[in-house]
Amino acid sequence: MSCKSSLRIGGPFGSETSISILQKELSGHFPSDEQSSTTSLQITNKYFGANVELVPFDHTYSSDSLHKEDGILLIFPCKTQIDTLTDLHNTLESTVPEVGDTLRLCISTHVPSDIDTTSKLYEETYSQRVLWCLDRGYEYIEVDITEGGLRAGFDDREKDGFARVVEAMNGTVWSSAVMGKSKASIAQTLLNSCDDENQPVKEEKPKANEDKIPETEKPVESPSTDCSENNIVSDKKEDNEDQEEDLFNNFEQMVNEAKRIREASHSGNLTDEERRARAGNAAEMLMGLLGQMGFDEEDDDDGSSYDSNSNQ
Question: Where is this region: Disordered (predicted)?
Answer without folding.
Answer: 194-243, 293-312
